[in-house]
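Re: the pair you flagged

First of the two:
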Amino acid sequence: MINSYFFLYFIKFNGDNMEFKVGDIVTRNSYNNDTLFKISKIEDDICYLIGINVRLCADSLKDDLKLSDTEDREEEFLEKIKPKKLERNDYFYLPGKILHIDGDKEYLNRCLDYYNDFNIMAAGVLLKESNIPDKIYELLNEYNPDIVVITGHDAYLKKRNDSSNINLYKNSLYFKKAIEEARRFEKSHEKLVIIAGGCQSDYEELIKAGANFASSPKRVNIHALDPAIVATKMSLSDIAKDIDIKDILENTKYGAYGIGGIITKGTMHVGYPR
C-alpha cells in the first residue's frame, strides 16, 4: 500500500505541478537539459532564464523546466584558463589596458575577477546592450583603453532561418552600432582592439563593422568568460608581434565555433631592464 503522504509529495515535486521561484537553477527538457539556467523573473506560466555559464537569455513555460540539483561541472575548462606566470627574466611587462562593457552584472564581475587574477588593469561598465552605442564613445574617451570588450546577451531566432539578417538577433544590431562608434573613436585595429558579441551573435556583421574578434561564427552559445579570455590573451601578447590567433581561440570554451577574428598584433609592451 502506498503511503498517502509520500504519494502527495511525489505529485508535487515530480511533474507539471512543480512550483519554481526566482533564483532556482533549472534546465529545459526540450533542449535535452543541456544548459543550466537561473530563473530571473516569473510571469504567469513563463519563466525568464539567464545562463549560468553561457551568455544566453531565454524564456520557457514552467512545464518544460526541470529543477537542477547539480552544479555545472567545468573544472577542466577552468583549470585550462588559470593564470600562468610570465617568464620575466631581466624584462618587465606592461599589459594592455582593458575596458569591459557588459549587459550582465554577474558576468561582468566574473570577467573583472578574471582580469585581476592576471594582474591586468581593467575597468568594468555595466550597460544595457541597447544603450552601449550611445555611451561607448564617451567611455573610450574617458578610459582610453588598448582593448574594449562589448558584450552581454544575444540570441538568433533560428526559426526564421535567415542568419544574414541582423534584425533577427536579440542584440547584434546594438553591438554592431557600438563597434562602429568605437571605430569612429579609433580607426586602427592595432591601436584599439575590439572584442564584441554574445551568444549566437551575427559574427560576419560584427567583423565587417570593425571588430578584431567577434562571436559567433557557428551561431553557438559562448561561455561567460570567453570575451575576457580573448581580451586577456590580447593584453598579454607582445605589441611587436602578430598574435597566434588559433592559440587564442583554442583557449575559449568552444574554440572557432564560438569566436573568430583577424590576425593583429598584441598590446603588451616589453621593457628592459626589469
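Second of the two:
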Amino acid sequence: GLTAALHAAERGCHVTVVTKGALADTNTRWAQGGIAAVPAPDDTVASHVADTVTAGVGLNDSAAVQTLVSEGPDRIAELVRRGVAFDRAGDGDFARGLEAAHARPRVLHAGGDATGAAIQAALGAAVRSAGIEMREHTTVRELVVEGGRVVGVEVETDGVRRRLTADAVILATGGAGQLYSHTTNPVSATGDGIAAALRAGAAVADLEFVQFHPCLLYTSDAAD
C-alpha cells in the first residue's frame, strides 16, 4: 500500500493514505522472514519460478508467479533506494540465505529476522517525507459507488463519518485472521476491507488461504 502511494505521488497524484491504526500497525512490520529474489549471477528466473510452483503444489497463479519473480530484483533495488538496509556479506554483496523450497540461496534479510520492520520503517519515512496526506486511526466503512464505478470512500474517525472523493481507490487491507478465535495476525486484520470490496461488487478469490503470521507453534504446556 505504501509503495503504491509513493509511486502515485511521484507521478503527480494527490494521494491520501487511510489506515485504521497508526502507520506502523501493519502485517509487514511483523514479517520476520526474508524476501526471495534472483540478483545472484548463478541464479535464474526460471529456477525461481519452478521452486515457487513446487512450493505452491500447483495451486499458483502462473502469471502472478512470473510477474513476482521476474520483477523481484527491480523491487529489491527500489527498496534499497528507499532506505532498506538489507544484510550484506563480507564482500559487500547481499547476504543470501537458502530457505524453504528454494534450490539456490536467494533469500534476503534485513536486521536478521527484522526484515518486515526494516521495510515498514523505510517506507513509512518515505511516505511522510513525500508530503502524502495521512489519516491514521481512520476506518474505511464503505466504498462509494456511483454509475458503476468507485468514486471515493466513506471513512470514520473518532465516531465521525465523512466522504473522501477519489479518481482511484487502492485497497491494501491485509487479511482476516482476527475473524478466528485464535490467530497470530495483528489486531487490524479483521477482513473489513475485503467486505467493503464485496459490498461494492468486487470479485474475490482464494479466501480459504489465511497467512499465519508470524509463524509459531503453541502447545498447552508451552513455557511462553
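The radius of gyration is 19 Å.

-B.
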